Structure formats: C-alpha cells, structure tokens
Amino acid sequence: MPNDWEEQLDGLKQGSVRSMARLITWVENRRTGWMDAMKTIYRNNGQTRVIGITGSPGAGKSTLTGKLTSTLVEKGYSVGVIAVDPSSPFTGGALLGDRLRMKTISTMEGVFVRSMATRGALGGLSLAARDAVKIMDAFGKDIVIIETVGVGQDEVEVVKTADLVIVVCVPGQGDGIQAIKAGIMEIADFFVVNKADREGADQVVMDIQTMLSLSSQDNDIKVPVLKTVSTTGQGIPELVETMSDFLTNTEKTPKKTENRIREELLVLLEKETARALRKNWVDKGLLDKAVENIISGERDPYSIVQEVIKTSLIN
Amino acid sequence: MENKEQKKAPLRVLLGKPGLDGHDKGAKIIASLLRDAGIEVIYTGLRQSIEQIIAAAIQEDVDIIALSILSGVHLELSRKLLYELNSVTKADLIPVIIGGVIPKQDIKSLKQIGVAEVFPVGSSFDDIIKIFKSYEQKKV
Ligand SMILES: Nc1nc2c(ncn2[C@@H]2O[C@H](COP(=O)(O)OP(=O)(O)OP(=O)(O)O)[C@@H](O)[C@H]2O)c(=O)[nH]1
Ligand SMILES: [Mg+2]
C-alpha cells in the first residue's frame, strides 16, 4: 500500500475528519490501493447501525434526515450522513443539493455529511455507499443515515442493506401511496408520512395501513406508520423512539447480517471480476481483436465469452 | 480511448453563497452549467457562514470551493475565509473561486489574498467552464 494511503488511514485512526473524507473519495474513485485500504478499514469496523431513508423526490427526506440527526446528536450519538443524488447519464456530472436542507447539522460536533452521486453503473452505488459506511464506522460513528430517492433499482439496493429502512410518503401526490414504486414498499421497516401539516395525511396513513394488512403474511411483524412535520420537528421524538426500539430489538438477528454479507460479497465479486477481466482484455487489445473476429464472421460473441471464462476463471 | 475517460473521477465542487444577500439565481445557473460540464456540484444554497462553508468543503472533500458574492463584501469575506480555511487545510489547500458583483479593480487584491480565480458578472460561460475544467488535470 502506498504511503499516502497509510497516512490517511493513520489520520482516520486519530480522528481526522479530513482523512475520513479523503478516504471516501479515494475508495469511491477506486484509486489504486483501495482494496488494501478497505481491508484495514474492515478490520476496524464495529457497531455502526445503518438507517436507510428513501421515498419520492421532494418528500422531505433531507429535512427529515437533518432533524433526525440533530435529535440523535442531542442524545449523545455521533452520526454520519450519506446523501445520494443521481448523476447525469449524459455528462457524468451531478447536482447534489441535499445539504441545502441540512445546513445546521453540518457544523455540529460529531456530525459528518457526505453527498454522493450515483455515477452510473448498476451495483456500483451500493458498493460505494457501503464502503463509505465502513469508513465512517472505522472512524467511530454510532449511526449512519443513507438518503436516496426511491426511484432507481440501484438506489433501492443501497437502502436494502440498512439495519432499518424508512420509507417516506407525503399527502397530496394524487393517489398517495401509488407514488411509491413497487419494490420499495416491501423493504420498509417503517413508514413515515411527512408533511403531516398538509391536508390528507391521515388518509395516507390509512392507505398504508390498508396496504400493509392486505400484503402482510407475517402477523407478528407490525410495521409502524408515523406522521412527521420535518420542517418543524413535529413527530421526530416519537420517530426516534420507535427507531431506537426497533434497533434494540433487531440487534441480534444474525439472519439479516448474513443476508447483507452474502449480498455484498456477491456484488463485490461480480464488479471486481468483471473489472479485472475487462481491464485485462482492453489492455491486451483482445477486445478489438474479438470485435474484428466477430465482424469477419470467424467467431461469435458466445464462444469468445465462454473461452474467456474458461481460461481466466476456471482452472 | 473511451475506457480511459470513464476511469477519470469527476471533479467535485462546493458551490455556495456566503453572507446575507438575497437570491441565488446566478449560483443556480452556474451549478447546472458545471453539472453539464461533467462536474459533481455540491450545492449548499444561500446564507452560508464561513464555518459552514469550511465544514462542508472538508466533509465533501471538494477540489474547489466556488462562492457567489453579490453583496459587495467580497474582500472582507475572502480574507476571513481564506485565513480560516488555510489554517484548517494546512499544506493541502483547497482552491477558492469567487464570482459575482466584483469591480475590476478588486480582482488584484482578491488574488493577493489567495483567491485562485475571479469571475465578475459578465464573464463568459465558456471561460468559466474552461477554468473549472483545468483543475481536473491537477487532481491526483
Ligand atoms: N409543509 C412541509 N414542507 C416540508 C416538510 N418537510 C420538508 N418540506 C419541504 O419540502 C421541500 C423538499 O424537502 P427536501 O428535504 O429537500 O426533500 P427531499 O425528499 O430530500 O428532496 P430530494 O432529495 O430532492 O428528493 C422543501 O421545500 C422542504 O422545506 C414538512 O413536513 N411540511
Ligand atoms: Mg434530499
């Protein structure tokens, strides 16, 4: 591992916020040496609990995250926030605006807020966000909140691995819960009906409860539905209390940990083998050659890929 | 080749508005301009204190801090910001770019204070993008 990595890892150990931030950047960028760095970080992982917050655009996720964070800090926790927004698929640029609603927490003692762009490639986001969680964990954060818009599959993947998933709904989006995509409802441990100062909040609560009672197979699990007004903080103390109960009660479910590790391992394996193969291929000019061979009719894509798998993966 | 380019990590820029002046129309235009140029823009909005700007820049590990200042206090603000920022970042400085209502004669003073680039109202968008993008080369 090059020296500069060592320097930042030392910094992380000594509680340097700058080092934590730099490590997140370098790991996200897959800078050479990142895997060795992550090995060290993984060894220093402790007990960070991860909360995923998702829901439709503009539902108040960032405002809610801000309020939750300040309440948790008051209770003595140190909190990391990862706020995810989409990258433009055309330019690779991104407008990351979640900090706008988290102004007051960014200078609070013990709080670290990081904006993250989705950067394209499917599966990549959940890895990058998970790496960032691990770095924050090694730094000593008690809780990490991940905010994503509940639209893309990749964003769902990210929150899925959280210890607690909160889905945020709001009144006044036509048919309230229809706005929430299928696939998100299923992963919710809690529902929060935010903007409860608006008309129709109770109706949304009832809709969600109806939906839950229809789809529920396991009657032991009761999914809480809470109302909040994130702008004023109304309902936040109740939410924090419910969260705290949930996290205490689920502390010892090895099943969830096992699933998460399995999922992470598979995604990492897929990504990294694909990357290594691809790099090897492109670097050696094999890609160009394969394309030529296919065009000339000598080969077909399937036999080429079969051959690559045989020669590089199976020995 | 295509693959080389994909590997290059996007530049990260913090864009904010310190002080109390009113609107952020200009800042928002610059924000979308930079995004369209392939930059990750962390937009912090209006009324940022120097403390908030520095905290955000460190946490986000940005390559550039870009501030829009319309209130005429650019000299004072820059002096204070750079002093405090540099004492936090030490040898590993973060360049500061300032835009807004800035009289020509103040540009030199701003640069003396340590501001990396200055874009007075009326600067061409092409120039702005070109300068921001030039920092990509300096990125490690
Ligand atoms: N009336 C009302 N407005 C709220 C409430 N919570 C948030 N808002 C407003 O809703 C708007 C969007 O809030 P954000 O927190 O940015 O929402 P978000 O879900 O993070 O948005 P994206 O990240 O863009 O998807 C802002 O103008 C907030 O002030 C609430 O409880 N009541
Ligand atoms: Mg948001």
**Outline of chain A:** globular
Count of spatially separate domains of chain B = 1
C-alpha Rg of chain B, in Å? 15 Å
Strand order of the largest sheet of chain A: 4-2-5-1-6-7-8
Mean pLDDT of chain A: 88
Bound molecules: guanosine-5'-triphosphate, magnesium ion
**CA-based shape of chain B:** globular
**How are strands sequenced across the largest beta sheet of chain B?**
2-1-3-4-5
CATH topology term of the largest domain in chain A: Rossmann fold
Provide an overview of this structure.
The complex is a heterodimer of chains A (315) and B (140). Helix content of chain A is 48%, strand content 14%. Chain A is an alpha/beta fold. Chain A folds into three domains: 1-44, no CATH class; 45-252, 3-Layer(aba) Sandwich (Rossmann fold), CATH 3.40.50.300; 263-314, no CATH class. In chain A, helix 7 links the parallel strand 7 (190-193) and strand 8 (225-227). In chain A, helix 5 (124-139) runs parallel beside helix 6 (153-160). Chain A starts with a helix and ends with a helix. Chain B has a five-stranded parallel beta sheet with strand order 2-1-3-4-5, with helices on both faces. In chain B, 48% of the residues lie in helices and 22% in strands. In chain B, helix 5 (106-113) links the parallel strand 4 and strand 5. Chain B has one domain (12-138): Rossmann fold. The longest helix of chain B is centred in the middle third of the chain and has 16 residues, at 74-89. Chain B has helices spanning 2-7, 25-36, 50-60, 74-89, 106-113, 125-138; strands spanning 12-18, 40-48, 64-69, 96-100, 117-120. Chain B is built from six helices and five strands. Classes of the chains: A alpha/beta (315), B alpha/beta (140). The interface between A and B is medium-sized, with 29 and 32 residues. Strand 3 (94-96) of chain A pairs parallel with strand 2 of chain B. The structure holds guanosine-5'-triphosphate and magnesium ion (MG). Residues 61-62, 98, 147 of chain A line the site of magnesium ion (MG).
